Amino acid sequence: MVKVVTETVIEAPISQVAAYAANPDNAPQWYSNISSAEWKTPKPLQIGSQIAFKAEFLGRSLSYTYEIVELIPEKKLVMRTAQGPFPMETTYTWSAIDDHHTRMVLQNKGEPAGFSKLFSPFMGPMMKKENKKDLAKIRAILESNRP
Questions:
Q1: pLDDT tens-digit readout, 45-80
Q2: Is 110 exposed, middle or buried, given 0-12, 13-18 or 19+ CB atoms closer than 10 A?
Q3: Is 44 inside a domain boundary?
Q4: pLDDT in the model for residue 113
Q5: Any domain includes 55
Q6: Taking Cα atoms as reference points, which of 53, 78, 76, 54 lies closest to residue 68?
Q7: What Å distances lie between residue 42 and 35, 81, 115, 145, CA to CA?
Q8: Among 34, 92, 116, 136, which is disulfide-ready with 86 (CB 3.0 to 4.6 Å)?
Q9: Closest CA to 22 of 6, 37, 2, 5
Q10: Which helix or strand (DSSP H or E) is residue 121 part of?
Q11: Is 102 among the domain residues?
C-alpha cells in the first residue's frame, strides 16, 4: 500500500479553492503529470461522475478513469480508479483558516499491481515530490487570480 499526504495553505477563500480544485477541467493546468481530462458522464460533478485522465508517471503514459465516490462541497472530494495498473484513491479536503486562507490537503493511496508493483518502494517519495509541486502550482494559480 502506498499512501501519500501533502498539504498547503492558499491565500484565497475556501469557495474559490474548492471550486477550482474540484473542477476536473482545471486538472491539466495544475497537475504537472496530467495532460488531459475528459468527462465520461454529463456535468456537473456529482457522485458517480466519471472523468478519464491521461498522464505521465515514471516515464510511462497512463490512461485511467476516476469515479467520484464522495463529494461534500467546500469540504471534501474523493475519487477512485476502478481499473488500471495502479488502483488509486485521491482525496482533497479543504478547511478555512480564515476568510482569505484555505488549507488544502491532497491524499493519494493505492495498491500497486503488475509492472507498478516493482516500483512501489519508490512510489511514495516520488508521488510526494510531485504532489508538492502540484500544490505549489495550484497555490500560485489561485493567488495570482486574487482581486
A1: 999 999 999 988 767 788 889 999 999 999 999 999
A2: buried
A3: no
A4: 66
A5: no
A6: 78
A7: 21, 18, 33, 28
A8: 116
A9: 37
A10: helix 120-144
A11: yes
Of the candidates 68, 3, 64, 15, the residue with the CA atom closest to the CA atom of residue 38: 64
Contacts of 2 (CB under 8 A, 6+ apart): 108, 109, 110, 111, 112, 120, 123, 124, 127
* pLDDT score of 110 more than 80: yes
Identify the three-state secondary structure at position 39.
Answer: strand
DSSP 73: T
Polymer length of the chain? 147
Is the separation of the CB atoms in 22 and 92 below 8 Å? yes
Written as one letter, the residue type at 141 is I
Least confident window among 8-12, 44-48, 53-57, 141-145: 53-57
Q: What CATH code is carried by the domain that includes residue 99?
A: 3.30.530.20
Residue range of the domain that includes 130: 2-31+71-144
Whether the CB-CB separation of 27 and 54 falls below 8 Å is answered with no
Query: Whole-angstrom Cα distance, residue 2 to residue 30?
Result: 22
